[in-house]
Specification:
This protein is 77% helix and 0% strand. With 177 residues, the chain is mainly alpha-helical. The two termini are 50 Å apart.
């Protein structure tokens, strides 16, 4: 029955770039854990940072409170005034709200897309850390197995010497040892 032998180098060549990078860091005892959020934030453009701030503000209670106050003020000013600049049914207000929604929606979507990319980067980093941890655990198991085998060999050696001593002792005082 023919057996195929593969070298470790052949096996490593079949792995992806990410796995090879983890193995290289494992072999050279380099850390993998980094703060990917800092690296991700460092590469953001001004527009991306602005979109994130707009999305964060647009999804806050502060925005909702200000929004309600502005709308209430707008309606009150137009209902109480003899010369209303936007009389009921507040068509200008509806136009402004539609424009706000039309501008705010893509900005929020840009921010969500960037957050999804950041989440994918976090997941990839977690995978790398988990892969290296798994390799470390396997290496520890191998070391423990090796130590246990050495201890068993030493124990068997001690037991063999004890058996030889018992045989000599049981042979009696007049018999050759």
């Amino acid at each position: 029955m023919p057996t195929e032998t593969h070298s470790i180098a052949d096996e490593v060549r079949t792995l992806g770039a990410l796995q090879r990078r983890v193995i290289d860091r494992f072999i050279h005892r380099k850390p993998i854990a980094t703060n990917v959020n800092v690296e991700f934030d460092r590469t953001m453009t001004l527009g991306e940072r602005t979109a994130d701030r707009v999305a964060a503000f647009g999804g806050s209670w502060t925005f909702i409170g200000l929004f309600v106050l502005v709308m209430a003020g707008w309606i009150a000013a137009n209902v109480a005034s003899a010369r209303a600049f936007d009389p009921y049914p507040f068509i200008l207000l509806n136009l402004l709200l539609s424009c706000l929604a039309a501008l705010q929606a893509p900005v929020i979507m840009m921010s969500q897309n960037r957050q999804a990319a950041k989440d994918r980067l976090d997941a990839q980093h977690d995978y790398e850390v988990n892969l290296k941890a798994e390799m470390e655990i396997v290496a520890l198991h191998l070391k423990l197995d090796e130590l246990r085998e050495k201890q068993w060999a030493a124990l068997l050696d001690v037991q063999q010497r004890q058996l030889e001593l018992l045989e000599r002792l049981s042979a009696g005082p007049g018999e050759p040892r």
